[in-house]
Amino acid sequence: MKGMTLIVKTITDFVAGFIVIFGAYIVLYGHLTPGGGFAGGVIVACAFILLMLAHGSDVAFSKLPEKVAHVMDSAGALAFLGIGWFGMTMGFFFMNSFGRGEMFKLFSSGMILPLNIAVAFKVGSSLFLVFSALAIFRRRSFRAMIEDELA
Amino acid sequence: MANIAPQLYALLVFMVIGSIVAIETRNLLSAVISVSAVGFALSVAFLFLGAPDIAITQLVVEVLVLIILIRGTILLDNTAVDTHRDTLAVVTSLIFFGLILGFGAMIFGSRGFPEFGQPVMRVSKVYVQTGLPATYAANIVTAVILDFRAYDTLGEATVLFTSILGALALLRREGKVSREEVVAA
């Protein structure tokens, strides 16, 4: 899978960074404007999937290696649970125990912003992993890898 | 029922037609595209109903699902579906559809449906009134799913985590064959 034509590759290089920035905006301002961790995470995953479709899997895995995606997936889930347990130390599970800040500002609503970021890491990396599993792993079986190595 | 926008009716008719096309068409790729058209129309319908959060999520997930399904479809050799109908399946689904309608009429027939857009707001009234002062989050949807109902969101994240884990374990072929087997073969 070597990717698509030069036109698609050039447009992808222009656009992919902006998609990541837009996804980060959707995540970070999820408590002020429509959006949130789930939608923003899927948008960021779409940027990497676009890279994989246009350039092939090697370029996409050089930007976001599979191991890193696995770690981000698990870290997002653990961070979500950890924030919940941090609330437990102050009162009850998922108590909004961080500082509330000033209304309608970016750092305003206590634990909602970190929870959004955790969900975004979790959803984005896991959807990237599912797509790479569907597109890549089918073509690269272990038997073929060892046979290449032996040949 | 007077305060539904007429555009919403057009979208609903479009979605019904798209669903019927998705079921009845013979080509798998056409079915995938029809399902996605229904999903995009649903996203616009959410915008008409005043739910931009759901509309964004629906749109983004629909794009991703369309890419994945088209990729899965074009990897197949034979994309024609043979649509012979099982009479038992048709009769069973008709019976269950009638049962659902009958129970719905039993429940709602005596006291009548609530007015469209005027739901019973016994629980959500508290969230709407105390959402901003209690959480300082301007977006009430985020305030509900990540503060009032954060425990539900934890369950949702657990479901996603487990399903991704299962999908990766099933889909990847690496590690299914041991090195000694290949060398011996």
Describe the structure in your own words:
The complex is a heterodimer of chains A (about 150) and B (about 180). Chain A has about 150 residues and is an all-alpha fold. Chain A is built from 6 helices and no strands. In chain A, α2 (about 35-55) runs parallel beside α5 (about 110-135). The longest helix of chain A is centred in the middle third of the chain and has 25 residues, at about 65-90. In chain B, α5 packs across α6 (about 140-150) and α6 crosses α7. At the A-B interface, α2, α4, α5 and α6 of A face α3, α5, α6, α7 and α8 of B.
For this entry, give a set of tags.
heterodimer, A: 151 residues, mainly alpha, 6 helices, flat, B: 185 residues, 2 domains, 8 helices, 74% helix
Secondary-structure blueprint:
The complex is a heterodimer of chains A (151) and B (185).
Chain A: H1 6-28, H2 37-55, H3 57-63, H4 66-90, H5 112-135, H6 142-150
Helix pairs in contact in A: 1-2, 2-3, 2-5, 4-5
Chain B: H1 6-24, H2 28-48, H3 52-74, H4 87-111, H5 124-135, H6 140-148, H7 150-171, H8 179-184
Helix pairs in contact in B: 1-2, 2-3, 5-6, 6-7
Report the β-strand fraction of chain B as a percent range: under 5%
Helicity range of chain B: over 70%
The parts of chain A where pLDDT drops under 50 for at least 5 residues are none
Topology of chain A as a string of helices (H) and strands (E) = HHHHHH
Quaternary structure classification: heterodimer
User: Taking all residues together, what is the mean pLDDT of chain B?
Assistant: 84
Q: Count up the domains of chain B.
A: 2
Total of DSSP H or I helical runs spanning 4+ residues of chain A: 6
Could you name the ranges of chain B where pLDDT drops below 50 across 5 or more consecutive residues? none
